[in-house]
Amino acid sequence: MPSIEKPVLSSSLPTLHLDLLLAADLNERRKLLNACRSHGFFYLDLSSDLQMMGYWEQMLETMKDYFEQPLEVKMEDARGSDNTGYEPMGTEVGPFGMTRDGYESLKVSRREHLQGHAELTTSIRDKTPFIFDFMRKSHEITMMMCERLSDEMGLSGSDRFESFHSTESPTLTNLAWLRYPKYDSISPDTVGHNKHTDIGSLTLLFAKQWGLQILSPDAKTWAFVKPRPGHAVVNVGDSLHFPSGRRLASVVHRVIPVADKQMEDRYSIAYFLRVHDLTPWVDSTGKEWTAKEWHDFKFDAFRSPDTKENGEQVLTGMMEDGDILRRPCWGTEEA
Ligand SMILES: O=C(O)CCC(=O)C(=O)O
Ligand SMILES: [Fe+2]
Fold first, then answer.
1. How far is ligand 1, taken at its centre, from the CA of residue 255, in Å?
2. Residue pLDDT, tens place only, 131-149
3. In this structure, is residue 1 part of a structural domain?
């Protein structure tokens, strides 16, 4: 097992409140934009939404039951897709030299949600209505934040972030369950989740256990994001970073096992809100992309960054250079 540096906690992440954002509180809206500009990551206090808090608990139980099944049963849900179905451990490159990733996942796409039918074949199939409820709520929350950001940035018409997510065109939005095995049972060659920025627009992450690290602009080093009860973690992805003219920060993060803290399997739930496939943008080198091209190129890089021209850079959204955060142009402007 590679040695893991002493944890540095990220205590400086801003905290936003779901109820205040829903009420379109002007101060909270300003805080949201500042958080997306300066840190790209923030805590979202969900404690005002008892239904969501209940869903989170229930989802954890459901996903534990799912992952406990034998590998060959879970493989019945494998579809060789990056947005739907089961993926075993080791599909992608891991965080340390010569390692593969150390997590398994199950994804349900928004396309399945909108069609009202998930292509699940195993025991989990009868949980589909609950999974769809969770996705609906996660979608409402993330889209509401897109609205608040657009308002605060004074965007109108087709420049507003909501319009990038229109249901008329396909998107690769999905809900993912992730399981990282407990520290004791990790094999040295499949570990954690490699450094990356998220492909989509906003990620709503439900994780009660340690392991998530960000490349902190404050500490200029890897910092653990401390799990906080009743709080989700939200982060900006590349599909808001580039289309916002890089004013919103898509920050590099990863997951690594924590020796004295990961005594149990680690479970996280991520809602990956993504823009529609044809959304155009220009990257930091001036190259033009559509969201779908970026997505496909980046997923290839997840699997083998060394074999792709600029794979490393695509992986980290061109935000990082040798584990040092490249100071982007965000964070300096006033809201
Ligand atoms: O499992 C986690 O806490 C984070 C996962 C993640 O960063 C991702 O899947 O993009
Ligand atoms: Fe991520």
1. 7
2. 999 999 999 999 999 999 9
3. no
Q: Mapping DSSP to helix (H, G, I), strand (E, B) and coil, where does residue 282 land?
A: strand
Count of structural domains within the chain: 1
d(CA 221, ligand 2 centre) in Å = 17
Give the contacts of 192 (CB within 8 A, at least 6 positions apart). 94, 95, 96, 99, 101, 102, 103, 180, 211, 254, 255, 256, 257
Question: Would 73 be classed as within a structural domain?
Answer: yes
Residue 195 CA to ligand 1 centre (angstroms): 10
CATH number for position 56: 2.60.120.330
224 part of a folded domain: yes
The percent of residues above 70 in pLDDT, for the chain, comes to 85
Give the residue, by CA position, lying nearest to ligand 1 atom 7.
254
Domain that holds residue 131: 8-276
- Ion ligand 2 neighbours (CB, 5 A) are 198
Mutate to test the pocket of ligand 1, among 203, 235, 236, 250 (most ligand atoms within 8 A of CB): 203
Q: How far apart are the first and last CA of the chain?
A: 44
CA distance 156 to 310: 34
* Prediction pTM value: 0.91
Q: In this structure, is residue 201 part of a structural domain?
A: yes
Pocket of ligand 1 (CB under 6 A): 178, 193, 198, 205, 207, 212, 253, 255, 268, 270
Contact 186, 100 (CB under 8 A): no
